[in-house]
Write a structure and sequence with these properties.
- The protein is α+β, with helices and mostly antiparallel strands.
- The chain has a single domain (4-41, 52-261), classed as endopeptidase domain like (from Nostoc punctiforme) (endopeptidase fold (from Nostoc punctiforme), Alpha-Beta Complex).
- It contains six helices and twelve strands.
- The strands form three sheets. It has a six-stranded antiparallel β-sheet with strand order 7-12-8-9-10-11, with helices on one face. A four-stranded antiparallel β-sheet has the order 4-5-3-6, with helices on both faces.
- The radius of gyration is 19 Å and the shape is globular.
């Protein structure tokens, strides 16, 4: 027997505990070997990309004390083809979200179907899309993105779908942070670079993404979240933890390729 409780996150279902998720975020790498770069020339305004699509509703499951447990649940849902990601919430518990829906009813229908298949147990239907009507919406959303990213500092993340111990994928971090704030960012660093609106370095503001070529060519291979005051938050490479870095660091200065804005 199960029952529904309506809480601050939406509708919570409590049946029998089973399995959940994490679909890792494969991306164009975050290696640390490269050469020179100049900031890439922005495309003309006539071909500027549109704003990112918003995530109206998504499904959230789980509350784990460690990323390893969240990842273990995630792996089992990955086999079922669910586009999922885990994150560290404000209560210091790891939780998982997956898929996106235009309506609460569609999310509810999908949740019930997955529960009937034994893939999930407790779940919430979450509405992460920020309100766009209030003054300074862009500033507040940017600060929210930075605060979300800061929760990951010091945390390992998975690389290439193997294990949490192998490091946080750079564009996996940015994708997850944006999706937690209701913006459907693509998965790879190169796709993220192509999707955003180019902005000059001198106009950077918190929440923008900064891109680098850290491979052996000028191809975009690394991304971070600008956090203000010449700093950005990123996942450096496999085996390292998420941290804050200075834009004036000579390594990144010589490899900087540009910045993008999405809202």
């Amino acid at each position: 027997m199960c029952f529904i409780v309506k809480g601050i996150f939406g509708y919570r279902f409590q049946p029998v505990l089973l399995l959940m998720l994490w679909v890792v975020v494969s991306i164009s790498g975050c290696s640390r070997h490269a050469k020179p770069p100049v900031e890439l020339t922005p495309p003309p305004a006539s071909v500027m990309p549109p704003k990112l699509p918003g995530i109206q509703f998504t499904i959230q499951v789980g509350a784990f004390s460690t990323s390893v447990r969240a990842a273990a649940y995630a792996d089992q849902l990955e086999v079922s083809g669910l586009d999922a990601y885990y994150f560290l919430d404000v209560d210091n518990l790891y939780k998982v979200r997956f898929e996106r829906f235009d309506s609460r009813d569609a999310a509810l229908k999908r949740s019930l179907e997955l529960r009937s298949r034994g893939l999930i147990d407790d779940f919430f239907i979450v509405h992460p899309q920020p309100e766009r009507g209030f003054p300074d919406f862009q500033v507040q959303l940017g600060e929210s993105l930075v605060q979300t990213a800061r929760r990951f500092i010091g945390t390992d993340y998975r690389w290439g779908g193997t294990s949490p111990e192998k490091g946080f994928d750079c564009s996996g971090l940015t994708m997850t942070v944006y999706r937690l704030n209701g913006l459907d960012l693509p998965r790879t660093a190169l796709e993220q670079f192509r999707t955003g609106t180019p902005i000059p370095r001198k106009t950077l503001r918190p929440g923008d993404l900064v891109f680098f070529a850290t491979g052996t060519t000028s191809r975009i291979s690394h991304v971070g979240i600008y956090s203000g005051q010449g700093q950005f938050i990123h996942a450096p490479s496999r085996g390292n933890t998420i941290r804050t870095e200075s834009m004036s660091n000579s390594y990144f200065t010589s490899r900087y390729k540009g910045a993008r804005r999405y809202f």
